[in-house]
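ok trying again, last paste got cut off:
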Amino acid sequence: MDGRDHRRRLSASGSGRRERLGPAPSPAWSQQLSVGSGRAKSLFRSIGVWFSSLSTPSSPTSAKKKRSKQAPAPAHDDAIKKPPSFGYGTERALMLRGGTARGGGGGLYGGGRRSLSQTQQQYQFQSSVFTMEEILKATSNFSPALKIGQGGFGAVYKGVLPDGTVVAVKRAKQRMQNPHVDVEFRSEVKIMARIEHQSLVRFYGYLEHGEERVVVIEHVPNGTLREHLDRRHGRFLELAARLDVAIDVAHAVTYLHMYSDHPIIHRDIKSSNILLTASLRAKVADFGFARLGAGGLGHGEGGGGARHVSTQVKGTAGYLDPEYLKTCQLTDRSDVYSFGVLLVEMVSGRRPIEPKREMKERLTARWAMRKLVEGKAAEEVLDPCLLRTGAAATAVEAVLELAFRCMGPVRDERPSMDDCCRALWAVRKTYRDTVSAMAAAADAFSDRASSSSASTGTSTTGDFCRM
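nice, full thing came through this time. structure:
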């Protein structure tokens, strides 16, 4: 009996325990870039390495062995046999509907608590599996008038659930148009059912009926970040708003890497997958390429200490991590590389690939790095729509420094997304403080000018016009 009790105590104490390794010191990425340095030259090569690979098809490092029909698919496989079943427990239903999830009771990376009336309203749709009748009613039989977008996955429609909730209904392409539709659909359902964060689009449910594959998510009405950078919504984003968006995205990806039930790698961080709310807050969307990371999977080299997942390369040209492209080894630092490309895109307003520009400017990240090393980032890289001020120049240089550390040629030298959050917070604080100081100085000058004109009885209108 004593031996049995002792084994039980050992089992209870050891079960469910997950050890997290703290961030390793990374002095390499925290170093300044210098003109003519080896790191700068290496970074030039890494940013351009994808260009030569566009004409070379990538292949996995080793072929997957055939599995017997009786053997279950491993947790790290891209494809699963059928979509997961969510019809268990009120807690899971609340999480799928946007309620308080496990371990998500407020805080920076957890979903906020909701009122009782909101919770009761969400109870009307506890089942995350919709019927075809519900989808057709919500979208008016997929009316072309309700179509709000088109992507690689398929068409997106605006819909309204019976309780009045406005949603986005993603209707997948048919298999003949996209043979990988089932893999992307089930990957998105599997990943989105695990997560909840204020900077991630909310998951409401899905439908799998015959050839139809539908995902129902939160409707974010203000378009994508790329559309705002292209000024398709009638106005451009100020630098302060762009810093806010960058921080929101960094928080969302940090949550995926560190604070979800299991580490998740998005694999497709780009401006067209970032939606903006009416208040210009960012929400990361499109989890069709996402997959579980290596932490806790217990496979690969090193057993439970595996640091990467060997998988087929997926992503968008211009945002792909060159090391992942060459080795097919996926880590969270691949998302960090894509985030660095996104930072350059947000600062410059240019797309990662500009085929209509002259050759030396076609790769935006490489061109921007050259200008930073030459000391011309504020004059030539900053989006022409933005004002050239001292505060803006300082912020742009700091953001580009961070971006190029994110795009380091060796993944171990790149910062974590948590480090990126801290760096961007510091940049935003410095920018706001500088702008506030400049505004206070301008107000003080205006007050002195007004008092001077009142005492002398002269007008300063002409002076201000000349200024």
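cool. The CA atoms of residues 110 and 265 lie 18 Å apart. The chain has two domains: 90-218, 225-432.
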